[in-house]
Amino acid sequence: MADSNMATPPAGADQRRPLAGAGSSHLGERGIKLFLALCAAFSILVTTGIVVALVVPTVSFFGQITLSEFLFGAVWQPAFANPSFGVLPIVVGTLIVVVTALAVSVPIGLASAIYLSEYASPRVRKVIKPALEVLEGIPTVAIGLFAFFFMRPIAESLFPFFPWDTPFSIGVAGVAVGLLIVPLVASVAEDAMRSVPGGLREGAYALGASRMRVTLRVVFPAAISGIIAGVVLGTSRAIGETMVVLIAAGAGNPNLTFNWFGSAQTMTAYIGGTATGDIPQHGRLRHDLRRRHPAVLDDAGHEHHRDPSGPPLP
Amino acid sequence: MVIDKGKRPQRPRLAVAGARAATESIFTPSSPGDRVANVLFRALLLLGMGFALLGLAAIIIWSFIEGLPRLDTQLVTEGPSTLFPENAGYRTAILGTLWVIGGVVLFIVPVGVGAAVYLEEYADKSRWWNRVIEVNIQNLAAVPSIVFGILGLAFIVRGPLSLGFVAAAGSLTLSLLVLPTVILAAREAIKAVPNSTRLGSLGLGATQWQTIWHHVLPGALPGILTGVILSVSRAIGESAPLLLVGAVTFVTFDPTFFDGQYSVLPVQIYNYAGRPQDEFRVLAAAGTILMLAVLLSMNSFAIWLRNHYEKKNAR
Q: Where are the CATH 1.10.3720.10 domain residues in chain B?
């Protein structure tokens, strides 16, 4: 960087310099451009790395395990002496977490967004909107601890008639993940509704519509693409969430279960759990397997992001 | 033509009638039932927002109440210990976090801002490779964090770089994870610098890089800073990918960047939380307070900076 400053005279120093200066092919300038282009191209390298890191072990994995065994097996215990590689249990676990998280975060997040965008006074909005954005930064470990040590016991004392057999619960983990993505859903949806032109609202009010009507029949439909984008971003965050599930759902149960109140595994928690040594691993095959699942995740992430209406992440 | 003539005057009339019917069906005059619905709706919204704020605040309050007994200096000065949980602390984990985050900052600022400058100032958008880079960065931002852990394990800890399970590997992995966010934020900030600034500088004979270095980047600085702070705070709180690149060991010695085992704050908290004794639960909560204090103040600063800067730009 210093090079170029020395190589080119400061602006205006040489009065007789030709006007082509702006696009000049100075060596320093070209070097800088090359460096910046390399910075940008670095992301391609990262993507290639991810694809290679996932695809190569996957190919070798499917050399040993048949596709149907993988897709339709109902027991997931790759690390046992007699391993079984049915992916269904962890897919179902992930689905339970995602559905629960959405059931919590979509109503709460959208209600917050609608209130902030349509009902709140500017003063209230000025306080609560940044507060929600700051709370988006609560670390997932903190939410996991909260779910495990606080929400789960509270839930048991409130609803003692459910089968709370273990200290873990996949449902509570799902609720906690929902809480985690509320700020994301709320702030993206609020941005979308705020960007609906004021003229639409004024027109509707002029026709005598009440505020609820304006909100639900005019603003909400107009902002629907942004709202959906927020929900989709939240979903992909819920799919990728690891720590909360690892702590609150206990990544140990290898069986296919729909029990909301017991422990279960998700794809990400399995990967994380393997690394922490909670799940024993030995041999090359386990290793391959650990890498198989993210391929599924990764596809999901990409799929979600292709939503063209998705606004850039805050 | 003849048929058209007969139809034409009808068309606007039909359109108006249709629009009126649609409007009336949507905005019928309000009835008492409507008013009740309005009040209920408003209450429902307030309830939702109350839940959101209360739920998130409860996390902070809970960790404060739970961790308060251990909020002492030993928390920072002492290393981990399985034998004396009442004296154990986060010393090595905090040092590990500092090493890792220091590396992240050194990496993401030049590379992230460099990539953003290239894409905004130099890249010819009609070239396919530039469009590929853009789409690629957006896609990378949506990849789950644990996938970056797998990438780090395959290429940084083992494989081509073979750094081993050291802080540098964790640092590089987290850098890759937050890089897309930094690039996207820096691009937005650079885009917001008015074009007249560039034209004025170029008109006075400055080269393109001089224009960028002396005029565009200073103007975009608050926006870039916001993006960097938010990314760094995400990196501090991120634990899942680090589980895969070796931050799981129980570290009793102070780590360094390229040598020795390391751990980071969130992973150490997770480690403590998994132990059966009550003291460790308190210790985990106390560590959470530490993290919350750092992260929330960083985020608050970043968001204040952004709002302040946006207001100034809008004027």
A: 73-314
Q: Which of A8, A170, A87, A192 is nearest to B209 (CA)?
A: A8
Q: What is the pLDDT of residue A278?
A: 53
Verify whether the Cβ–Cβ distance B27 to A131 is below 8 Å: no
Inter-chain CB proximity B205 and A109 less than 8 Å: no
* A219 in Cβ contact with A192 (< 8 Å): no
pLDDT for position B8: 58
- What is the domain partition of chain A in residue ranges? 101-305
Distance, CA of B288 to CA of B285 (rounded, Å): 5
Phi, then psi, of A84 in degrees rounded to 5 = -135, 135
Supply the mean pLDDT for chain A. Answer: 79
pTM of the model: 0.81
B201 interfaces chain A, CB cutoff of 8 Å: yes
Q: Tokens for A94, please give them.
A: 């992930």
Q: Which residue of B has its CA nearest to A28?
A: B209
Residue A84's alpha-carbon distances to A273, A285, B100, B105, B139, in angstroms, are 17, 12, 37, 43, 33
Q: Cβ of B269 under 8 Å from any chain A Cβ?
A: yes
Portion 150-169 of B in contact with A at CB < 8 A? 150-151, 153-155
Q: Among residues B245, B236, B250, B223, which one has the least CA distance to residue B295?
A: B236
Higher pLDDT, B204 or B20: B204
Over chain B, what is the mean pLDDT? 86
**Amino acid making up residue A278:** D
Task: Judge whether B80 and B250 are in contact, CB under 8 Å.
Answer: yes
**A293 against B165, higher pLDDT:** B165
Among A45, A55, A98, A115, pick the best mutation site for testing chain B contact (most B Cβ within 10 A): A115
Indicate if the pLDDT at residue B180 is higher than 80.
yes
> In this structure, which CATH number among 3.40.50.300, 1.10.3720.10, 3.20.20.80, 3.40.640.10 belongs to the domain A101-305?
1.10.3720.10
In this structure, what is the dihedral angle of CA atoms B256, B281, B147, B120, given to the nearest 10 degrees? -70
Top CATH class, B73-314: mainly alpha
Q: What angle is formed at CA B257 by the lines to CA B94 and CA A37, rounded to 5 degrees?
A: 110
ipTM, interface predicted TM-score of the complex: 0.83
CA distances in angstroms from A174 to A187, A249, B81, listed in the order given: 20, 9, 32
Average pLDDT of span B96-118: 94
Residue B109, chain A, CB below 8 Å: the answer is: no
Residue of B nearest to A239 (CA): B144
In this complex, how many residue pairs, one in chain A and one in chain B, have their CB atoms less than 8 Å apart? 316
- Mind listing the pLDDT tens digit for each residue in A4-17? 444 444 444 444 44
In the predicted structure, residue A30 carries a pLDDT above the cut 80: yes
Six-digit token pair at B264?
């980071």
Residue A25 has pLDDT above 70, yes or no: no
Least confident of A205-209, B146-150, B153-157, B197-201: A205-209
* CA distance to partner chain B, nearest, from residue A188 (Å): 15
- Whether residue A108 is predicted with pLDDT greater than 60 in this model: the reply is yes
